[in-house]
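Hi R.,

Here's the chain you asked about this morning:
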Amino acid sequence: MESKRKIIVILGPTASGKSEMAVKIAKKIGGEIISSDSRQVYRGLDIGSGKVKGEWRNKIKAQSSKLKTKTQNQKTFIYKNIPHYCLDFVSPKKVFTVVDFKKCAEEALEKIFAKNKTPIIVGGTGLYIQAIVDNIVLPEVKPDWKLRKELEEKTTGEMFEMLKKLDPERAKNIDSKNPRRLIRAIEIAKAIGYVPQLETPRRRLDVARVGIKLPDEILKKNIKKRIKKMLKEGLIAETKKLRKSGLSWKRIYELGFEYKYPALFLQGKTDKDEMLKRMLLENWQYAKRQMTWFKRDKRIRWIKNVKEAEKLLKNF
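And here is the predicted structure, written out as C-alpha coordinates:
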Protein backbone atom coordinates (compact mmCIF):
# COMPACT_ATOMS: atom_id res chain seq x y z
CA MET A 1 0.00 0.00 0.00
CA GLU A 2 1.32 3.45 -0.95
CA SER A 3 2.51 5.38 2.10
CA LYS A 4 1.09 8.80 2.80
CA ARG A 5 3.15 11.87 2.04
CA LYS A 6 3.86 13.94 5.13
CA ILE A 7 3.24 17.63 5.82
CA ILE A 8 4.04 19.56 8.98
CA VAL A 9 2.03 22.66 9.86
CA ILE A 10 3.42 25.15 12.37
CA LEU A 11 0.87 27.77 13.34
CA GLY A 12 0.15 30.27 16.06
CA PRO A 13 -0.59 33.93 16.73
CA THR A 14 1.57 36.85 15.72
CA ALA A 15 4.88 37.20 17.62
CA SER A 16 4.84 33.58 18.82
CA GLY A 17 8.09 32.59 17.08
CA LYS A 18 6.66 30.44 14.26
CA SER A 19 9.18 31.37 11.57
CA GLU A 20 12.32 30.59 13.57
CA MET A 21 10.82 27.38 14.94
CA ALA A 22 9.98 26.26 11.40
CA VAL A 23 13.57 26.87 10.26
CA LYS A 24 15.01 24.87 13.16
CA ILE A 25 12.70 21.95 12.44
CA ALA A 26 13.37 22.16 8.70
CA LYS A 27 17.11 21.88 9.33
CA LYS A 28 16.62 18.92 11.63
CA ILE A 29 14.35 16.85 9.37
CA GLY A 30 15.31 18.02 5.88
CA GLY A 31 12.29 20.20 5.23
CA GLU A 32 11.40 23.21 3.11
CA ILE A 33 9.00 25.97 4.12
CA ILE A 34 5.76 27.27 2.62
CA SER A 35 4.73 30.63 4.09
CA SER A 36 0.99 30.92 4.73
CA ASP A 37 0.89 34.62 5.54
CA SER A 38 -1.49 36.91 3.68
CA ARG A 39 0.94 39.85 3.64
CA GLN A 40 4.37 38.26 3.36
CA VAL A 41 3.52 37.38 -0.25
CA TYR A 42 4.00 41.06 -1.13
CA ARG A 43 7.28 42.59 -2.23
CA GLY A 44 8.27 45.62 -0.18
CA LEU A 45 6.29 44.56 2.90
CA ASP A 46 9.35 43.34 4.74
CA ILE A 47 9.46 44.98 8.15
CA GLY A 48 5.73 45.39 8.79
CA SER A 49 4.80 41.86 7.76
CA GLY A 50 7.54 40.26 9.86
CA LYS A 51 9.00 38.61 6.77
CA VAL A 52 12.18 36.59 7.33
CA LYS A 53 15.32 38.35 6.11
CA GLY A 54 16.17 36.00 3.30
CA GLU A 55 17.35 36.58 -0.24
CA TRP A 56 16.57 35.40 -3.75
CA ARG A 57 19.23 33.05 -5.09
CA ASN A 58 20.04 32.68 -8.81
CA LYS A 59 19.97 36.15 -10.29
CA ILE A 60 17.23 35.85 -12.86
CA LYS A 61 14.85 38.62 -13.90
CA ALA A 62 12.12 39.16 -11.28
CA GLN A 63 8.54 38.17 -12.03
CA SER A 64 6.48 40.79 -13.85
CA SER A 65 3.97 43.01 -12.07
CA LYS A 66 1.15 40.77 -13.29
CA LEU A 67 -0.06 38.50 -10.51
CA LYS A 68 1.48 35.06 -10.93
CA THR A 69 1.11 32.08 -8.68
CA LYS A 70 3.83 30.04 -10.33
CA THR A 71 6.27 30.17 -7.49
CA GLN A 72 10.02 30.21 -7.47
CA ASN A 73 10.56 27.96 -10.51
CA GLN A 74 13.39 30.20 -11.74
CA LYS A 75 14.85 31.32 -8.45
CA THR A 76 14.37 30.52 -4.79
CA PHE A 77 13.94 32.62 -1.66
CA ILE A 78 16.48 31.36 0.89
CA TYR A 79 16.62 32.08 4.61
CA LYS A 80 19.23 30.38 6.79
CA ASN A 81 19.88 27.94 3.92
CA ILE A 82 16.23 26.80 3.87
CA PRO A 83 14.10 27.38 0.73
CA HIS A 84 10.90 29.34 1.38
CA TYR A 85 7.90 29.44 -0.96
CA CYS A 86 4.89 31.73 -1.43
CA LEU A 87 6.45 34.89 -0.11
CA ASP A 88 7.98 38.08 -1.49
CA PHE A 89 6.79 37.64 -5.09
CA VAL A 90 3.63 39.72 -5.62
CA SER A 91 3.32 43.47 -6.21
CA PRO A 92 1.42 45.17 -3.35
CA LYS A 93 -0.60 46.93 -6.05
CA LYS A 94 -2.25 43.57 -6.72
CA VAL A 95 -4.75 41.84 -4.44
CA PHE A 96 -3.58 38.33 -3.55
CA THR A 97 -6.47 36.07 -2.52
CA VAL A 98 -6.76 32.75 -0.73
CA VAL A 99 -7.46 31.20 -4.15
CA ASP A 100 -4.12 32.55 -5.37
CA PHE A 101 -2.41 31.23 -2.26
CA LYS A 102 -3.84 27.76 -2.72
CA LYS A 103 -2.49 27.58 -6.27
CA CYS A 104 0.90 28.78 -5.08
CA ALA A 105 1.03 26.31 -2.18
CA GLU A 106 -0.12 23.37 -4.33
CA GLU A 107 2.78 24.01 -6.71
CA ALA A 108 5.22 24.39 -3.84
CA LEU A 109 4.06 21.12 -2.26
CA GLU A 110 4.67 19.16 -5.44
CA LYS A 111 8.06 20.78 -5.90
CA ILE A 112 9.13 19.89 -2.34
CA PHE A 113 7.78 16.33 -2.59
CA ALA A 114 9.69 15.89 -5.86
CA LYS A 115 12.91 16.55 -3.91
CA ASN A 116 11.91 13.97 -1.28
CA LYS A 117 11.78 16.73 1.32
CA THR A 118 9.10 17.41 3.93
CA PRO A 119 6.92 20.50 3.39
CA ILE A 120 6.52 22.69 6.47
CA ILE A 121 3.60 25.11 6.21
CA VAL A 122 4.08 28.01 8.60
CA GLY A 123 1.98 31.07 9.35
CA GLY A 124 -0.84 32.71 11.20
CA THR A 125 -3.43 33.09 8.45
CA GLY A 126 -5.83 30.30 9.43
CA LEU A 127 -7.88 30.37 6.23
CA TYR A 128 -4.74 29.97 4.10
CA ILE A 129 -3.61 26.96 6.12
CA GLN A 130 -7.07 25.39 6.01
CA ALA A 131 -7.36 25.98 2.27
CA ILE A 132 -4.31 23.88 1.47
CA VAL A 133 -4.32 21.27 4.25
CA ASP A 134 -8.06 20.53 4.17
CA ASN A 135 -8.31 21.19 0.41
CA ILE A 136 -11.23 23.59 0.73
CA VAL A 137 -13.03 24.26 -2.53
CA LEU A 138 -12.81 28.00 -3.13
CA PRO A 139 -15.05 29.92 -5.53
CA GLU A 140 -13.35 32.07 -8.15
CA VAL A 141 -15.84 34.92 -7.97
CA LYS A 142 -14.63 38.09 -9.68
CA PRO A 143 -14.52 41.33 -7.65
CA ASP A 144 -17.70 43.42 -7.70
CA TRP A 145 -16.21 46.91 -7.54
CA LYS A 146 -19.56 48.67 -7.22
CA LEU A 147 -20.51 46.50 -4.23
CA ARG A 148 -17.07 46.94 -2.68
CA LYS A 149 -17.39 50.72 -2.87
CA GLU A 150 -20.76 50.54 -1.10
CA LEU A 151 -19.43 48.19 1.59
CA GLU A 152 -16.38 50.36 2.27
CA GLU A 153 -18.76 52.99 3.64
CA LYS A 154 -20.01 50.55 6.30
CA THR A 155 -18.48 49.59 9.64
CA THR A 156 -17.25 46.05 10.27
CA GLY A 157 -20.23 45.58 12.60
CA GLU A 158 -22.69 46.51 9.87
CA MET A 159 -20.98 44.22 7.37
CA PHE A 160 -20.95 41.36 9.86
CA GLU A 161 -24.70 41.72 10.41
CA MET A 162 -25.20 41.73 6.64
CA LEU A 163 -23.16 38.53 6.27
CA LYS A 164 -25.13 36.83 9.06
CA LYS A 165 -28.29 37.35 7.03
CA LEU A 166 -26.71 36.27 3.74
CA ASP A 167 -24.74 33.29 5.01
CA PRO A 168 -25.09 32.41 8.74
CA GLU A 169 -22.64 29.49 8.46
CA ARG A 170 -19.81 31.62 7.08
CA ALA A 171 -20.55 34.28 9.71
CA LYS A 172 -19.85 31.72 12.45
CA ASN A 173 -16.26 31.24 11.27
CA ILE A 174 -15.14 34.58 9.86
CA ASP A 175 -12.94 37.16 11.56
CA SER A 176 -15.68 39.72 12.27
CA LYS A 177 -13.14 42.54 12.70
CA ASN A 178 -11.43 42.07 9.33
CA PRO A 179 -13.10 44.37 6.76
CA ARG A 180 -11.31 42.83 3.79
CA ARG A 181 -12.51 39.31 4.66
CA LEU A 182 -16.04 40.54 5.37
CA ILE A 183 -16.25 42.37 2.04
CA ARG A 184 -15.03 39.30 0.15
CA ALA A 185 -17.44 36.97 1.97
CA ILE A 186 -20.40 39.26 1.23
CA GLU A 187 -19.27 39.59 -2.38
CA ILE A 188 -19.21 35.80 -2.82
CA ALA A 189 -22.47 35.25 -0.94
CA LYS A 190 -24.26 37.79 -3.13
CA ALA A 191 -22.80 36.22 -6.28
CA ILE A 192 -23.60 32.56 -5.60
CA GLY A 193 -25.87 32.62 -2.56
CA TYR A 194 -23.39 31.32 0.03
CA VAL A 195 -19.69 31.08 0.78
CA PRO A 196 -18.65 27.45 0.24
CA GLN A 197 -16.18 25.87 2.61
CA LEU A 198 -16.40 22.32 1.36
CA GLU A 199 -13.74 19.79 2.12
CA THR A 200 -12.93 17.41 -0.72
CA PRO A 201 -10.89 14.20 -0.57
CA ARG A 202 -7.29 15.20 -0.04
CA ARG A 203 -4.55 13.32 -1.85
CA ARG A 204 -2.89 10.86 0.49
CA LEU A 205 -1.36 13.10 3.13
CA ASP A 206 -0.36 12.65 6.73
CA VAL A 207 -0.52 16.05 8.44
CA ALA A 208 1.02 16.99 11.78
CA ARG A 209 -0.51 20.23 13.08
CA VAL A 210 1.69 21.93 15.67
CA GLY A 211 0.43 25.09 17.36
CA ILE A 212 2.45 27.50 19.48
CA LYS A 213 0.54 28.59 22.57
CA LEU A 214 2.18 31.06 24.94
CA PRO A 215 0.89 32.56 28.20
CA ASP A 216 -0.83 35.91 27.60
CA GLU A 217 1.79 37.91 29.49
CA ILE A 218 4.63 36.44 27.39
CA LEU A 219 2.77 36.95 24.12
CA LYS A 220 2.00 40.57 25.06
CA LYS A 221 5.68 41.12 25.87
CA ASN A 222 6.69 39.57 22.54
CA ILE A 223 4.22 41.78 20.66
CA LYS A 224 5.55 44.94 22.32
CA LYS A 225 9.14 43.93 21.55
CA ARG A 226 8.21 43.10 17.95
CA ILE A 227 6.43 46.40 17.27
CA LYS A 228 9.24 48.46 18.80
CA LYS A 229 11.78 46.52 16.74
CA MET A 230 9.79 47.19 13.55
CA LEU A 231 9.78 50.92 14.26
CA LYS A 232 13.50 50.90 15.06
CA GLU A 233 14.28 49.00 11.84
CA GLY A 234 12.48 51.57 9.71
CA LEU A 235 8.78 50.74 9.47
CA ILE A 236 7.83 54.38 8.92
CA ALA A 237 10.38 54.69 6.10
CA GLU A 238 9.09 51.45 4.58
CA THR A 239 5.54 52.83 4.66
CA LYS A 240 6.72 56.06 3.01
CA LYS A 241 8.45 53.99 0.30
CA LEU A 242 5.21 52.11 -0.40
CA ARG A 243 3.43 55.43 -0.83
CA LYS A 244 6.14 56.73 -3.17
CA SER A 245 5.87 53.53 -5.24
CA GLY A 246 2.33 54.55 -6.18
CA LEU A 247 0.15 52.91 -3.52
CA SER A 248 -2.82 54.94 -2.34
CA TRP A 249 -3.21 55.62 1.37
CA LYS A 250 -6.35 53.47 1.21
CA ARG A 251 -4.39 50.51 -0.19
CA ILE A 252 -1.71 50.97 2.46
CA TYR A 253 -4.41 50.83 5.17
CA GLU A 254 -5.58 47.51 3.68
CA LEU A 255 -2.12 46.04 4.21
CA GLY A 256 -2.65 45.91 7.98
CA PHE A 257 -2.39 48.09 11.05
CA GLU A 258 1.43 47.87 10.98
CA TYR A 259 1.16 50.08 7.90
CA LYS A 260 -2.09 51.90 8.65
CA TYR A 261 -0.85 53.76 11.72
CA PRO A 262 2.55 54.77 10.28
CA ALA A 263 0.58 55.99 7.24
CA LEU A 264 -1.67 58.09 9.48
CA PHE A 265 1.44 59.45 11.23
CA LEU A 266 3.00 60.39 7.87
CA GLN A 267 -0.16 62.32 7.03
CA GLY A 268 -0.07 64.17 10.35
CA LYS A 269 -3.26 62.48 11.53
CA THR A 270 -1.72 60.94 14.66
CA ASP A 271 1.40 61.32 16.77
CA LYS A 272 4.07 58.72 17.55
CA ASP A 273 2.75 57.88 21.02
CA GLU A 274 -0.78 57.28 19.76
CA MET A 275 0.57 55.34 16.78
CA LEU A 276 2.48 52.96 19.06
CA LYS A 277 -0.47 52.62 21.43
CA ARG A 278 -2.87 51.70 18.61
CA MET A 279 -0.42 49.27 17.01
CA LEU A 280 0.11 47.43 20.31
CA LEU A 281 -3.63 47.25 21.02
CA GLU A 282 -4.61 46.05 17.55
CA ASN A 283 -1.76 43.53 17.44
CA TRP A 284 -2.97 42.01 20.70
CA GLN A 285 -6.58 41.94 19.52
CA TYR A 286 -5.46 40.30 16.28
CA ALA A 287 -3.49 37.64 18.19
CA LYS A 288 -6.62 36.81 20.21
CA ARG A 289 -8.69 36.48 17.02
CA GLN A 290 -6.05 34.17 15.55
CA MET A 291 -6.20 31.93 18.61
CA THR A 292 -10.00 31.88 18.48
CA TRP A 293 -9.76 30.59 14.91
CA PHE A 294 -7.11 27.96 15.71
CA LYS A 295 -8.80 26.67 18.86
CA ARG A 296 -11.72 25.41 16.78
CA ASP A 297 -9.43 22.83 15.19
CA LYS A 298 -9.11 19.95 17.64
CA ARG A 299 -6.44 18.29 15.48
CA ILE A 300 -3.84 20.86 16.55
CA ARG A 301 -1.28 19.72 19.13
CA TRP A 302 -0.25 22.68 21.27
CA ILE A 303 3.35 23.27 22.37
CA LYS A 304 5.35 26.08 23.99
CA ASN A 305 8.80 25.78 22.40
CA VAL A 306 10.91 24.05 19.77
CA LYS A 307 11.98 21.23 22.13
CA GLU A 308 8.36 20.26 22.69
CA ALA A 309 7.76 20.48 18.94
CA GLU A 310 10.71 18.22 18.15
CA LYS A 311 9.55 15.70 20.74
CA LEU A 312 6.05 15.74 19.27
CA LEU A 313 7.37 15.23 15.73
CA LYS A 314 9.99 12.63 16.64
CA ASN A 315 7.95 9.67 15.46
CA PHE A 316 6.08 11.48 12.70
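One quick note: The first helix runs from residue 18 to 29.

Cheers,
M.
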